[in-house]
Amino acid sequence: MTRLFTGAAVAVTTPFIEGKVDYDSFKQHLTFLKENSIQAFVVNGTTGEGTTLTREEKTTLLSLAMEVADKQIPVIAGTGSNNTAEAIILSQEAEKLGVDGLLVITPYYNKTSQKGLLAHFTAIADAVSIPIILYDVPSRTGVTIAPETLEVLAQHPNIIGLKDATGDLAHLSRLQRVVADSFSFYSGNDDLALPFFSLGGHGLISVLANALPNDYQNMYVAALKQPKLAADIHRKLFPLVDALGVDVNPIPIKVLTSHLGYGAYSLRLPLVPLEDAAQNVLTELFDHTRKDA
Fold first, then answer.
1. Does pTM surpass 0.90?
2. How far apart are CA 68 and CA 70, in angstroms?
3. Is 135 one of the catalytic residues?
4. In CATH terms, is domain 7-291 a member of 3.20.20.70?
5. Following DSSP, what letter does each residue of 175-205 receive, concatenated?
6. What is the pLDDT of residue 291?
7. For residues 207 and 250, is the Cβ–Cβ distance under 8 A?
8. Nearest one of 81, 5, 72, 77 to 42, comparing CA atoms
9. Looking at the predicted structure, is the pLDDT value of residue 1 above 60?
10. Which of 39, 165, 191, 255 could form a disulfide with 7 if both were Cys (CB 3.0 to 4.6 A apart)?
11. What is the pLDDT of residues 153-181, one digit of tens each?
12. Is 163 a catalytic residue?
């Protein structure tokens, strides 16, 4: 069976300079990621600060991602919204650009019922003809996709996978029971990537892979046949993954992308940078982790 991707995809950060998108650094970063085993680009998502980007900025970022990907790896556009009509427009515009798939988050703030989730995702899926990965992250949205809801949604021909950022592996097992084997599950939690793989997960949409792309792809490959090696990679990465919890994503990871030279350490309000001391802790731990690679 063919999946949109397997292994490590990256939720790409968006670099800024003096308040404007730094497209040159974005393209350089994507090139680095592609050259270091990343299996898919996810653009304009939470890690990419998609909610603060203009429609024109989103379009340009997607166009650059497709240029770098050059049809060798998929480009997935984050097009979710708590406004179904807006999500449809964003999804249709991304499809016209030629992206390979969409990542669509559950509605947030005006969170809905399971009946509302069915109507919301179905309306978006009916409006496009490319694959959709649902995105479930209750820590941000306050709502979780129930197994009974996913069972219905997975029957739509355009809904082909789920990014599961619930952090609940028992929930993953419940979801797996109600869908066909062709349905794809991707972890949205770097710290749980290895157990997620061991339970049959098909990949990961990673934050830390912005800075360490090879490691997560190597972990995925090793998890299939070399569990001890996969566990060793997990143990090596875990302290850095844990340290990224110092503040909300993407505030910490942008310290590392800037440290690598892919743009200034800059975020758009309401996000604000870490204090210098916290930045130093992250960069020192990152350098140590990379040295041990």
1. yes
2. 5
3. yes
4. yes
5. HHTTS-TTSEEEES-GGGHHHHHHTT--EEE
6. 80
7. yes
8. 77
9. no
10. 39
11. 999 999 999 999 999 999 999 999 999 99
12. yes
Q: At what angle do helices 84-97 and 114-126 cross, to 10 degrees?
A: 30
Identify residue 14 by its one-letter amino acid code. T
Provide the pLDDT for residue 293: 58
Residue 113, C-beta contacts closer than 8 angstroms, at least 6 positions apart: none
Q: Is residue 138 within 8 Å of residue 109, measured between CB atoms?
A: no
Residues 6 or more apart whose CB falls under 8 angstroms from that of 252 comprise 243, 244, 245, 246, 274, 282
* Average pLDDT rounded to a whole number, residues 235-251: 97
Collapsing DSSP to helix, strand or coil, 53 comes out as coil
Tokens representing residue 238 in the block: 């875990």
Q: 135, 186, 220, 262: which is the annotated catalytic residue? A: 135
Tokens of 44: 């304009």
Please state, in angstroms and rounded to a whole number, the distance separating the CA atoms of residues 246 and 103: 26
pLDDT of residue 2: 80
DSSP state letters, 91-121: HHHHHHHT-SEEEEEPP-SS---HHHHHHHH
Q: Where are the domains of the chain?
A: 7-291
The residue from 34, 58, 163, 254 that is catalytic is 163
